[in-house]
Amino acid sequence: MGAELALSAADFEREVLLSDVPVLVDFWATWCGPCLAIAPHVEAIAGELAGKAKVFKVNVDSDADLAGRFGVMSIPVLLVFKGGREVDRMVGAHPKDKIKALLERHV
After folding, report:
1. Is 96 among the residues known to form the active site?
2. Which residues have C-beta within 8 Å of that of residue 17, sequence separation ≥ 6?
3. Is 32 noted as a catalytic residue in this protein?
4. What is the pLDDT of residues 12-26, one digit of tens each?
5. Which is catalytic among the residues 16, 24, 32, 72?
6. Which of these is catalytic: 23, 24, 35, 42?
7. 10-residue block means of pLDDT along the chain (107 residues)?
8. Nearest-CA neighbor of 105 among 20, 16, 24, 5?
9. Which entry of 18, 26, 52, 91 is 20 to 30 Å from 97 by CA?
10. How many of the other CB atoms lie within 10 Å of CB of 47?
11. Which of 23, 47, 35, 16 minimizes the C-alpha distance to 91?
């Protein structure tokens, strides 16, 4: 995983809730096989939509409070935030085109 995509609870408000562009947040864990399977897709989408949207990853083990705050019950879960609130959600591992479409609906 690209370190630049990692996001901690301390930076969440500034990077996600106060963002002027849509933000995709991937809640994941190192022990989650499906999370690791979609990681390359999430990283690719971050590059493809740079400037139009932001993409971050939140490790549910190190930021359990953040996961709880947004009702993350199973992973992977991808949340899209726009204007400081959650506007979309996708649970489970999905193909790259479906993940990208989730974010592009809000760009």
Report:
1. no
2. 81, 84, 85
3. yes
4. 999 999 999 999 999
5. 32
6. 35
7. 74 95 97 98 96 96 95 97 97 98 97
8. 24
9. 18
10. 9
11. 35
